[in-house]
Amino acid sequence: MTTEITDELTDAELASRLATTAGRRLLQIRAEVGFADPKALRAAGDAGSQELLAAALDRYRPKDAVLSEEAVDDPARLSAERVWIVDPLDGTREFSEEGRTDWAVHVALWRAGALVAGAVALPGLGTTLSTATITPPPPAEPGPPRLVASRTRAPRLVTDVAERIGGVVVPLGSAGAKAAAVIRGEADVYLHAGGQYEWDSAAPVAVALAAGLHATRIDGAPLRYNQPDPLLPDLVICRPGLAEAVLAAIRESDTAPA
């Protein structure tokens, strides 16, 4: 896949190529810095990817606002019609551990109230999922539904819902990697209720919706972006046929956030 960035790209194509290019830069940083000092590697990754994305968006979409995990929030975005929502390095813990591939780069575009383009790069796997090219996942595999959850801090709600729908929990790293597992058909449900921000879910949700998947808050409400407070603490991404059962299990659980 070409990663050349030009003025003629559509927003979806630009999102894809930016995420891919930032991912390749992160692989270079991994090789240059090494894994001896994880804290230094994480800092270098965050800074290097942010610098690349900020410069590219300033060059190719200079009139647009940007909301990034690694930049100071500019309240001018609240009156902007177009806002890029980016996470330069999703899953810094996994990025700093040699051999792990479950980390990502998120690039999404919000326009006039909705996510209209997005890309999730999985640099360790050499792939990028984009609204420009995504297709529905393959049919579900036989057996119990697979719910992806944090490998270090999975909320009790995930295991409770898994029990209620007869599913199994699969530990995985970053938010982007977990969403990608559902988008790629490697899992069936991504349920999160432990606190996130808009940049954690914007690009994954954009791609999931483009792939025909269900994506909402855990109470079934729409996910809203470019809000004054970027905290967006929970979400469900799943196969449409499982949405009703998952949301019902959440309602019935006494571990769901109030």
TrEMBL record:
Reactions catalysed: adenosine 3',5'-bisphosphate + H2O = AMP + phosphate
One of the entry's Gene Ontology molecular-function terms is:
metal ion binding
Pfam families cross-referenced by the UniProt entry: Inositol_P
What are the names of the required cofactors?
Mg(2+)
The positions making up the signal sequence are: none
Q: Which UniProt keywords apply?
A: Magnesium, Metal-binding
Biological processes annotated in GO = 3'-phosphoadenosine 5'-phosphosulfate metabolic process; sulfate assimilation
Q: Please tell me where Mg(2+) 2 binds in this chain.
A: D90
Ligand binding (Mg(2+) 1): E69, D87, L89, D200
Classification via Gene3D superfamilies: 3.40.190.80, Fructose-1,6-Bisphosphatase, subunit A, domain 1
InterPro entries referenced in this protein's UniProt entry, alphabetically: CysQ/Inositol_MonoPase (IPR050725), Inositol_monoP_metal-BS (IPR020583), Inositol_monophosphatase-like (IPR000760)
> Which protein is depicted?
3'(2'),5-bisphosphonucleoside 3'(2')-phosphohydrolase
